[in-house]
Design brief:
Radius of gyration: 18 Å
Strand content: under 5%
Order of helices and strands: HHHHHHHHH
Helix content: over 70%
Shape: globular
Oligomer: single chain
Distance between the termini: 38 Å
């Protein structure tokens, strides 16, 4: 029972970054569908479950090497997505005007979804900390399969709730799309900086 509570606590803690990222992205969008909710939830949940498994398999053989660089990898990935969001927020105004004048026939080609590549980058960046959990379970000689599955399921549920929460924010603030996109980009960048801080980069 104690071990179950411990794993649930770990899962919730590991899911926080994923929830913030999902919330910021969905809050900056004009329209959120159940496809978006499922897409974010499944991808983020999958990687949150996969990383502990990879960490457990690697054990302490790669721990020394990976632990020296995982925070920089996470920072670079998050910073890259942040820059991409800013570029989108301050994109070509003429192009946006043309989209608004569209008669509706070409509505299907307008960008209304997150690219798979960008989503995968976000999922990997927010799940790198889970590698350490796998390492610790391996060195402690503890099983990892059921904890990894539980971590993935909890992340999936919490991420879905975050996207839905962002949808409600989006519906109430459509006119503030650019500021909210900038805020989302800033939050992602700050998550990356915080990861560096936690690893003593600024000490």
């Amino acid at each position: 029972m104690i071990e179950l509570v411990e794993v649930i606590g770990i899962a919730v803690a590991l899911s926080i970054d994923a929830m913030v990222v999902a919330l910021c992205w969905s809050a900056s969008q004009k329209q959120i569908t159940m496809k978006h909710v499922a897409k974010f939830a499944v991808v983020f949940g999958f990687f949150q479950a996969l990383m502990p498994l990879l960490g457990w398999v690697a054990g302490d053989a790669l721990h020394q090497f990976i632990s020296q660089w995982d925070h920089w990898v996470a920072f670079v990935l998050l910073a890259g997505v942040s820059v991409s969001m800013l570029k989108e927020a301050f994109g070509d105004d003429d192009e946006e005007e043309e989209k608004e004048k569209c008669c509706g026939h070409c509505e299907g080609v307008k960008k209304t979804d997150i690219a798979w590549g960008e989503l995968l980058v976000l999922a990997v960046a927010t799940s790198l900390d889970a590698l350490a959990i796998g390492f610790s379970f391996s060195m402690a000689g503890r099983a990892i399969v059921w904890p990894a599955i539980l971590i993935g399921i909890i992340c999936l549920v919490l991420t879905a709730l975050a996207v839905l929460a962002g949808k409600r924010l989006s519906e109430k603030a459509k006119r503030f799309e650019t500021p909210m996109t900038c805020l989302g980009a800033f939050v992602l960048l700050m998550i990356g900086v915080h990861i560096l801080y936690e690893h003593g980069v600024f000490a």
